[in-house]
Specification:
The complex is a heterodimer of chains A (225) and B (221). Chain A is an all-alpha fold and 225 residues long. Chain A has eight helices and no strands. Chain B is mostly helical.
Chain lengths: 225, 221
């Protein structure tokens, strides 16, 4: 029942998204603009500093992720369908998991584009340890999206929600971003610093467990009026 | 608490008057000298902040899961007091760092995460101020996540190599520097008592505000 509901919510969001591709295209475009802006900030004499690629990758993920997370629930608000979704005789946390899976899929696609692009633009050896990089990206994205989805869901009813989402999301998720950046930077060193990267993956896992548990636990009372 | 409030207030005031004398008479730290004495205010202000965060986190959980409205008054008081003491810690820290490290601010794990913790609770106050009706729950969730981050901030100095002194300094004080322990204990107790008193006043104010809001609503109906 739980999984079925989550997958149904995911399928619903996918069906809507596939029709317009609105969130996907805007997110990808915004991520690209982020990379460009930060490239201007860091590049000197045609060369970017060694660690810059890691930071730019995660900033692009965080910024474009905020945009995407805000949009998924904006759509529900616009169609006034959130109440209907909440009235459904299904476990509330399943709705959250469905939304979270959708967010993860979207950010995953964005990362599939961002990682090769940054590796190409900054001559960064991002693919030297593909499994560790994938683990870092997965851990970071789950932590970021878990908090983001929860707060975006709550903000649907709040005033000035566009401003409040980043205000709430960044301070809470910055530890996750830091872990992602430092882990990725360790992979970019030559030779790649595997123990450091693994340590950061472990920290990311710890944050993921805490954040996802807290989100699943608080979603029900938070969404009750 | 109401009966105890004035005596406690007098006690805290007396402690804050006595503290400078004890601190001035405490032995000098060998390498840092005079500037080390800022620790008697720096560490207790963070202790007070963690106390306030604890109150805010527990009250938010009670408010969210039990729906007790009075708990929300405790949560908002906790967050405000936490921000005040956090600011104290963030001001006294760089004053020491300027002498000990030669720079006002280091991008070190402890400093960064402590700043983040402060930001989370400022975000809490922003949500309450600008979130409109129903923002109490949103704020409660922020507080719960913030409280969950607090232990990471506290333990960060033991996990990573940082330039910030470790958490073991305080419990070891009676053995490593017996002369520093009494003034430190006095400051710590004074700050935590001050935190409790501020919380009491702020909770009282929040309860009054809530009663006034309810009266307005009842009048309009």
């Amino acid at each position: 029942m739980f999984l079925k509901t989550a997958l149904l919510v995911l399928r619903k969001d996918f069906a809507i998204e596939l029709k317009s591709l609105e969130v996907l295209t805007t997110t990808l475009f915004f991520a690209l603009s982020c990379v460009l802006i930060f490239a201007f900030a860091f590049v000197k004499d045609g060369q970017a500093p060694e660690d810059a690629a890691a930071g730019i990758l995660w900033i692009a993920i965080a910024f474009s992720g905020t945009l995407a997370i805000g949009r998924t629930f904006e759509r529900e608000r616009y169609g006034e369908t959130l109440r209907a979704l909440l009235l459904a005789p299904a476990p509330r946390p399943a709705l959250y998991v469905g939304k979270l899976l959708g967010m993860l899929a979207l950010l995953g696609i964005a990362e599939l584009l961002l990682v090769p692009l940054i590796a190409f633009l900054f001559q960064a050896p991002l693919f030297s340890r593909p499994l560790l990089l994938a683990a870092l990206l997965a851990g970071g994205t789950i932590g970021f999206a878990a908090v983001g989805t929860l707060f975006a869901a709550m903000l649907v009813r709040a005033r000035s929600r566009d401003v409040l989402l980043p205000i709430l999301l960044y301070p809470i998720t910055i530890p996750v971003i830091i872990a992602g950046v430092r882990g990725t930077a360790a992979l970019l060193a030559s030779p790649p610093d595997e123990p450091t990267a693994t340590m950061w993956i472990g920290i990311l896992m710890a944050f993921d467990v805490v954040f996802v548990t807290l989100a699943l636990w608080t979603f029900e009372p938070l969404m009750t009026e | 608490m109401r009966k105890l409030f004035v005596p406690l207030l007098v006690l805290v005031a007396a402690m804050f008057v006595a503290a400078p004398f004890l601190i001035a008479n405490a032995p000098y730290e060998a390498t840092m000298g005079l500037i080390q004495k800022i620790f008697y205010f720096h560490v207790p202000s963070w202790m007070a902040m963690y106390t306030a965060i604890g109150v805010c986190g527990v009250a938010s959980l009670v408010y969210l899961f039990k729906g007790i409205r009075a708990a929300d008054c405790y949560a908002v008081a906790g967050a405000e007091v936490a921000v005040v003491f956090g600011l104290m810690g963030l001001v006294t820290g760089p004053l020491w760092g300027r002498i000990a490290w030669g720079v006002w601010w280091q991008w070190d794990v402890r400093l960064t995460t402590a700043l983040l913790l402060e930001l989370i609770f400022i975000a809490y106050l922003l949500v309450r101020a600008y979130g409109g009706p129903g923002s109490e729950k949103l704020a409660a969730a922020t507080a719960i996540f913030g409280t969950a981050t607090a232990p990471f901030v506290y333990k960060s100095v033991d996990i990573w190599r940082t330039v910030h002194p470790k958490t073991s300094v305080v419990p070891m004080l009676t053995r490593t520097a017996p002369g520093m322990a009494p003034p430190f204990a006095l400051s710590a107790i004074a700050f935590i008592l001050l935190c409790v008193l501020l919380l009491t006043v702020r909770v009282h104010l929040a309860i009054r505000q809530r009663a006034l809001d309810d009266l307005y609503l009842a009048y309009e109906d």
